[in-house]
Amino acid sequence: MTIAIIGGTGPQGQGLALRFARAGVPVALGSRDATRAAEIGVALRAQLDAAAAPITGVANEEAVMMADELVILAVPFAGHNATLAALKPHLEGKILVDIVVPLKEGDPKKVEMPPEGSATEAAQALLGPDIPVVGALHNVSATTLKTLEWDINCDILVCGNSLPARKKVMALVETLGVVAYNAGDAEAARCIEAITPILIRINISKQVPFTHAGVKIQAPAH
């Protein structure tokens, strides 16, 4: 099953492409610049062994058309709505996985939520009810994703208004060796997306002896 990653030439998109390809999932790496996408796709695939799935760099529209069902949106929030508006005609029959966090311009330690409440909800409003939007992978460090010798050190919270779509996305992200939790409908993205700037603040703090922290759901000891 081929997945598309729109904005795949950015740090998080590249990290996800590496992780999914290593897990055996073919990736169509989308970008506004098809030539750059093709070059990065070749460079990423060269980092993996022969058993990994292909990474094919193409233009955004072609990447969506190559995807069997799941399309991951990994663009900066400034380009979120414009990218979706351009791709909407090609998203029929697909599930959009929105990993975008609306970080405040000039201060990534804060969020600046859109009027809809979250990036996930904004995507659903723009695409309409017939194209399911699922929020996921908001709280994973891009550095962690790209550093393949590291395990992904967090659980994945998945939300969206369609339960069948949530389950498909949970199954996909669990191929990366992580635990995915059903966090409820799209409104839950308001909380999930807002965790990211908190993690950024912690990770850049000189008072904290680590970086690239993630969130784990901890079972009780008793």
TrEMBL record:
It comes from the Bacteria. Gene3D superfamilies: NAD(P)-binding Rossmann-like Domain (3.40.50.720). Pfam families: F420_oxidored. GO terms for cellular component: plasma membrane. One of its GO terms (molecular function) is cupric reductase (NADH) activity. Residues 2-102 form the Pyrroline-5-carboxylate reductase catalytic N-terminal domain. InterPro entries: NAD(P)-bd_dom_sf, NpdG, P5C_Rdtase_cat_N, STEAP_metalloreductase. Keywords: Oxidoreductase. Coiled coil: none annotated. This is Pyrroline-5-carboxylate reductase catalytic N-terminal domain-containing protein.
